[in-house]
Write a structure and sequence with these properties.
heterodimer; A: alpha+beta; Ubiquitin-like (UB roll); DNA polymerase, domain 1; 2 domains; 5-stranded mixed beta sheet; B: mainly alpha; Cytochrome Bc1 Complex, Chain D, domain 2; 3 domains; two-stranded antiparallel sheet; 18 helices; 6 strands; 4% strand
């Protein structure tokens, strides 16, 4: 039996070592933030963080996650306490159908954890691995910029209402 | 032994320098001129020059990352130090705007700057010297009609003695043979055209031929496999490591589209080459493919048989049930969980299908670096290719996991001997990918 360290908590799982992380998150642990998009590592809807870096959980066997930290969308905050990147996505109303947004938020989180002041080009290059079929790219980019700005200014988590009005 | 080698090295450098100085450490400077007006060039000549510039991949070295085309400043790492590609836009002060056509042709054919100083052979004039004057004039017309960009070229980072350009005079005495490549009357027109492009402007050998200790191409191992930017440039002669022998038709499609099954995708330093060749006259790409095809040798029954055997032997083995023991992330498990979905033949066509790894170039190469890069960085396929995107696994896998995966792939999908020092290879590739 393998144990996954997800959002700071150990989770013993029944699944075999070759099982993609996404299936274990959704089917065994019930963390449904990461989405099944293509299942082939092409779209990014399943993005989670592994040791603070974005990975495609649909093609990441759980064997490689042993002893490493997994962060999912749920680890950033929930409906009552959204994290800074989630608040920025809400404030910019970046979702249309919303299917890609969980992955977009996680990829953006991965960028901001390593580079809190990315240039516009760095944001675009970094986010290009994730696809959005609705075409909300401009709002997604605005949300990532807003999250970076929020991080820069004071680095104090402002309440979401203020953030939305800004 | 090492001391003798070092002494010999020093001695040869001193000798080269002395000989160079005495004979021709500098060529005469050619007069500077006002940049010619773009309107003065014949448009057909400019168009021809544009094609030749793409075949010659001028843009690849003479454009830095995110920089203006042809404005230079791209660092070229050599075993001797870093050389910066120059600005070849027609800016009078920082580019070649003040160069006459005579000065340009001399630089291409003799490796001499307008001011008379020798150029480092990182600028492959050992190939460009084979181009015809007509073609060089067309290239000149193309470059002089580009947008002039004011951009200083950074100083080269070459330690003494390599910082002394006079040494290049000695190097040229030893290794440089000036002169246009004349057609071989015994060959077809297509093969002659291919030879002219491959050996001349396209300078394939600059990467695909191994170099000696003084950085000259080893002529006795022409196209025998070299290296560039931390990638192996595989042999394009009888020593080709390709598990499936290439045909000229496959080479053509590979160079044209950047992808041909079952061989795979043009990646790494070959990607911009394929992007360039995707836009030039088809006949020239066919000629290049025909000539390289001739260098590789005919696809004989025995070569096909050998490839067939290696593929038959390399029938993928399913991961053993023990492989999934707690805490283990061995190569078989990683392959089954991450790679098999796209790379295992399923009989079904779908958009993300990869090539079967039994025919993969990078799994069968003598050098492990290319497979390392592909796993770490993935493959962003060339513009003209229908190939699928392969995501990189650099964030998902640790160095040790990638090394285990590579050992598994090598053992399962090729009949080549195991690679050694894989974890170091992965670590070095990660470092080089982080550098600009």
């Amino acid at each position: 039996m393998l144990t996954l360290n997800i959002n700071g908590r150990p989770h013993p799982v029944e699944a075999e070592a070759v099982t993609p992380l996404l299936y274990v998150l959704r089917d065994e642990i019930g963390l449904n933030g990461a989405k099944f998009g293509c299942g082939l590592g092409q779209c990014g809807a399943c993005t989670v963080l592994l040791d603070d870096r974005p990975v495609l959980s649909c093609i990441t066997p759980i064997a490689v996650t042993q002893g490493r930290q997994i962060t999912t969308l749920e680890g950033l905050g929930g409906i009552d306490n959204p994290g800074p990147v989630q608040r920025a996505f809400i404030a910019e109303q970046a979702a249309q159908c919303g299917f890609c947004i969980a992955g977009m938020i996680m990829r953006a989180e991965g960028l901001l954890r390593r580079n809190s002041q990315p240039s516009d080009k760095e944001i675009r290059t970094h986010m290009s691995a994730n696809l959005c079929r609705c075409g909300t790219h401009m709002r997604i980019l605005a949300a990532v910029r807003r999250a970076a700005r929020a991080e820069r200014s004071a680095r104090v988590d402002a309440p979401p209402s203020q953030d939305a009005r800004r | 032994m090492r001391l003798r080698r070092a002494l010999l090295g020093v001695l040869s450098v001193v000798l080269l320098g002395a000989v160079g100085f005495i004979f021709f450490s500098r060529q005469p400077a050619l007069p500077a001129m006002q940049p010619p007006s773009a309107a003065g060039f014949d448009r057909a000549l400019v168009a021809k020059g544009a094609e030749l510039a793409l075949i010659g991949n001028c843009n690849v070295c003479h454009t830095k990352q995110d920089g203006a085309p042809y404005a230079g400043a791209r660092p070229l790492k050599t075993p001797f130090g870093t050389i910066y590609a120059t600005n070849i836009t027609p800016d009078a002060d920082t580019g070649i705007g003040s160069w006459s056509e005579t000065a340009f042709v001399r630089a291409m054919r003799e490796g001499v700057r307008r001011d008379g100083a020798h150029l480092y052979p990182a600028f492959p004039y050992d190939h460009f010297t084979k181009a015809s004057v007509d073609d060089l004039r067309a290239l000149y017309a193309f470059l002089m009609t580009r947008e002039p960009v004011r951009a200083e070229t950074p100083n080269n980072e070459l330690p003494f003695p390599w910082s002394e350009r006079a040494l290049i005079a000695g190097w040229k005495l030893l290794y440089f043979k000036a002169g246009e490549l004349k057609p071989d009357p015994t060959l077809s027109a297509e093969l002659n055209r291919g030879a002219y492009l491959v050996e001349g402007l396209a300078h394939c050998g600059a990467c695909h031929t191994p170099r000696n200790r003084l950085g000259a191409e080893a002529n006795d191992r022409y196209l025998g496999g070299g290296e560039i930017d931390g990638w192996h440039a595989p042999a394009l002669n009888a020593a080709s490591p390709a598990p499936v022998p290439w045909t000229s038709e496959q080479l053509f499609r590979y160079l044209r589209n950047g992808f041909v099954p079952p061989h795979g995708v043009a990646a790494g330093p070959m990607l911009p080459v394929a992007n360039n060749l995707g836009t030039v006259t088809e006949q020239d790409v066919k000629a290049i493919a025909a000539y390289i095809g001739a260098m590789l040798g005919p696809v004989t029954a025995s070569r096909r048989h050998a490839a067939g055997t290696s593929m038959a032997q390399a029938t993928p083995r399913p991961p053993s049930p023990d492989a999934g023991a707690p805490g283990s992330a061995d190569g078989a498990v990683i392959y089954a969980g991450a790679c098999a979905l796209c790379h295992e033949p399923t009989g079904q066509a779908f958009s993300a299908h990869g090539i079967p790894l039994t025919s993969s170039k990078v799994v069968a190469m003598p050098d492990a670096r290319n497979l390392t890069h592909v796993i770490l960085e993935g493959i962003d396929p060339p513009k003209a290719s229908p190939a699928a995107l392969m995501p990189g696994f650099g964030a998902a896998f640790t160095d040790r996991q990638i090394a285990a995966l590579m050992a598994y792939l090598r053992g399962t999908f090729s009949d080549q001997p195991a690679w050694s020092g894989l974890e170091d290879t992965v670590r070095e590739a990660r470092q080089s990918a982080r550098e600009p």
